[in-house]
Specification:
Aspartate Aminotransferase, domain 2; eight-stranded mixed sheet; 2 domains; binds pyridoxal-5'-phosphate; 41% helix; alpha/beta
C-alpha cells in the first residue's frame, strides 16, 4: 500500500493529454520552447564533461554561477550576494524545496486559479491546504484583492504568484506587484514568486518581486530562457536566512544540481543573450499570428497574452473543455484543456505558441473547422 501522500496527488492533466496523442498530431500543448540552447551553452557543456566536471558540487551550486546570478539581481537590490542564490535542479524542484521549507501541516497557501499545475499538489504534499484565488478574465486575469482579503485567515502562510502566467499569459503591472506586497506585509505572508517566464514579455515591462520587499522568494529556471527544459536546471533567490533553510531541503531532494549543466549555463549567462532575444522576437510574431487568428473564430474570445508563450482562449462551443480537447485530439491537434489549471479554466483551452508558424497555421485551421462543426451540431 502506498502512502496517504501518494494517494492524495494525481498525474497532471497535461501529461494525460500527451500520452493519448495520435502520431503526427500538431502539438500546441507544449510547455517548452521549440528552440535549442545557444551554441555557446552546448559547447560549454561538452567542454565541461570532457574536462572532468562530472562530479558532485556544492549543494547550493557552483560559487561562480551563484555570483553571476546574484550580479543580475543586484540591479534590483544592491545588497544581493551569492548567499541569496541557490542553484536548483529546475524550477519544479525549486518550488518543491520552497514548499517543504515554508509550509507546515494545516497551513493555508493562496494559489492562483487558473494557475500552474504544481502549486496545489506541492502544498498538499506538505500537509498544507491550497486555497484558490481567482484570476479574473474580465480584469485581464489579474487577482481580485477584495477576494484575497476574504480568503486570508490566521492559518495563511504564503501566497504563490506567477507573472508572466502559465496558463493565461497575463503579466502583473507594477501596481499589482505593489498591492501583493502590501497584502503580504499586512497579513505576514511569504510571497513565492514564480518568475520563470520573465524574459518573455511582449507588452509593458517585467516587474520582479525582488528588491521591493524582504518577504519574497523568487523561483526561476533556465528551462525556458535557454531552451533547455530537458536539462533540469534553475535557481532560487531568497533572503539570506531563508536561503540557508531552503538549501537544507534542497540538499535532501537532490544533493546538488548537475555540475556540467551549471558550467554550461554560466557560459550562457556570460556570453549568450542574443539567442534568447531572437527566440522571444519570434514568439512575439507568433503571438500576433495566433491572437489575430483566434479573434476571427466564432465563439472564441481571447485576452491577448502580455507574456509567456500561451494563449488561453475562452470557447463558447458545445461541450466541456475536456470534450473539446478530446475532439481536437482525434482530429490531430493537441491542446490542453483549461481545467487542468483549475476550475476557472473550465471553458478555456491553453494553446501554446512555442510551435512553428506552419504548425500554428495548421493547428488553427483544425480548430476553426472543429469549432464550426461543433457549433452547427
Ligand atoms: C509557471 C511555471 N513554473 C515553473 C515551471 C517549471 O519549469 P522547470 O521545472 O522546467 O524549470 C513551469 C514549467 O512549465 C512553469 O510553467
Amino acid at each position: 500500500m502506498v502512502s496517504e501522500r501518494a494517494r492524495r496527488v494525481e498525474i497532471s492533466g497535461i501529461r494525460k493529454m500527451f500520452e493519448a496523442a495520435p502520431p503526427n498530431a500538431i502539438n500546441l500543448g507544449l510547455g517548452e520552447p521549440d528552440f535549442e540552447p545557444p551554441k555557446v551553452v552546448l559547447d560549454a557543456l561538452c567542454a565541461a564533461v570532457q574536462g572532468r566536471m562530472n562530479h558532485y558540487g556544492p549543494s547550493a551550486g557552483l560559487p561562480a554561477l551563484r555570483e553571476k546570478i546574484a550580479e543580475r539581481y543586484r540591479e534590483l537590490d544592491s545588497e544581493t550576494g551569492r548567499e541569496n542564490v541557490i542553484v536548483t535542479g529546475s524550477g519544479s524542484e525549486g518550488l518543491m524545496a520552497v514548499a517543504l521549507t515554508l509550509y507546515d501541516p494545516g497551513d493555508e497557501v493562496l494559489v492562483p486559479n487558473p494557475g500552474f499545475v504544481l502549486y496545489p499538489p506541492h502544498a498538499k504534499l506538505c500537509g498544507a491546504n491550497p486555497v484558490f484565488y481567482d484570476l479574473i478574465e474580465k480584469k485581464g486575469f489579474q487577482p481580485d484583492f477584495d477576494q484575497l482579503e476574504r480568503l486570508v485567515t490566521p492559518k495563511t502562510r504564503a501566497i504563490v504568484v506567477n507573472s508572466p502566467s502559465n496558463p493565461t499569459g497575463a503579466v502583473f503591472p507594477r501596481a499589482t506587484v505593489e498591492r501583493v506586497i502590501s497584502f503580504a506585509e499586512e497579513h505576514d505572508l511569504t510571497i513565492v514568486s514564480d518568475e520563470v517566464y520573465e524574459e518573455m514579455v511582449y507588452e509593458g515591462k517585467f516587474q520582479s518581486f525582488w528588491g521591493r520587499t524582504d518577504r519574497a522568494v523568487i523561483v526561476n529556471s533556465f528551462s525556458k530562457t535557454l531552451a533547455m527544459t530537458g536539462w533540469r536546471i534553475g535557481f532560487l533567490v531568497a533572503p539570506r536566512a531563508l536561503a540557508v533553510e531552503i538549501n537544507k531541503l534542497h540538499y535532501h531532494l537532490m544533493a546538488c544540481p548537475s555540475t556540467p549543466a551549471q558550467a554550461a549555463v554560466l557560459a550562457g549567462l556570460e556570453h549568450g543573450g542574443a539567442e534568447t532575444r531572437a527566440m522571444v522576437a519570434e514568439f512575439r510574431v507568433r503571438r500576433g499570428l495566433i491572437s489575430r487568428a483566434l479573434a476571427k473564430i466564432p465563439g472564441v474570445s481571447l485576452v491577448p497574452p502580455a507574456g509567456a508563450f500561451y494563449t488561453f482562449p475562452k470557447l463558447d462551443w458545445p461541450g466541456t473543455a475536456q470534450e473539446i480537447a478530446g475532439t481536437l485530439l482525434q482530429r490531430g491537434l493537441i491542446t490542453t484543456p483549461g481545467d487542468a489549471f483549475g476550475s476557472l479554466g473550465a471553458n478555456h483551452l491553453r494553446l501554446s505558441f512555442a510551435a512553428s508558424r506552419e504548425n500554428l497555421r495548421k493547428g488553427l485551421a483544425i480548430l476553426r473547422t472543429v469549432g464550426a462543426e461543433l457549433r452547427a451540431s
